[in-house]
Structures are given as C-alpha cells and as structure tokens.
Amino acid sequence: TDSGCQQCREKTFSGPGASSCTSCPEGMVPATGSTSKDDCYYAPCLAGTFMTNTGCQQCGDNTFSGPGASSCTSCPDDKTSPVGSISIDNCYYVPCSAGSFMTDDGCQQCRENTFSGPVLVLVVLMVWFQLLKLLHVLVVLMAWFQLLDLLPLMI
Questions:
Q1: pTM of the full predicted structure?
Q2: Cα–Cα distance, 121 to 136 (Å, whole number)
C-alpha cells in the first residue's frame, strides 16, 4: 500500500514486492509467512473425516476417525456406525434377527427348543388377549351371580 507493507489477512499470502494478497485455494490455508500458492495446505480434518488429495472427506458407514486422520478406521466385526462417526464408541451391534439374541460378543443363535424375535411379541400378545377374555368372562359371571342373588328378591 501507499503507507508501506501490510500483513496479509488470514487464509491469504503474497510474494515479494506484491501489491495485494492472494487467497489459498478453497479449503486450504497458508503457513505463516507464505509467499506462494505452494505454501498452502489443507488444515487438519475434524473428527469423523479424513484427509484426501482434495481435502477432508466424511467417513462412511461402519467407520470412524479422530481429528487429523488420514484414513477412517473400520468398526470391529459385526458392528456398524453412522456416516461421520468420531470414535469406536459410535460403533454398535446391528439388532439381532429372529432366532438369535444379543450378548456382549454380538448376536448368538438361540439354543435348541428356544426362540426369540417377533414371534415372542406375538406370543405375549396372544397370552394378553387370552387374559383379557378370561377377565371378561369373570366379569360376566360375577354380574350373573349378582343377578341370581337378586332374583329371589324379585319374585
């Protein structure tokens, strides 16, 4: 400028004798005292992303990463995680299918003569329905016996 050299703003650089500052390419930042585009670099990636040749990319399903990662880490066997997960704590077991149940080690097959899954819900509902029918029958019987007790009084 007319008043002498000025410090370039954040995310810009200038070469010797330059009259203005130049921005680094999108997503890149310059090192302190940068004098050319070659000094621009991608800032470390946030957790849940990893560095590629074109900048940070979000980790996909079943993977996670911490801050500054150059790749994503896969969840342990039989576990999954949502896109952009930031730690192994985001990995979880997929719900077990009918015929298996959850343990600390994942889904285990039911033993012989046992079952689990949607069928169990159906059985519980059927038992509940039968109990409601029985309750209804008891209420009807109680009303009938009360009516019988009152019948001699009416005659």
A1: 0.51
A2: 22
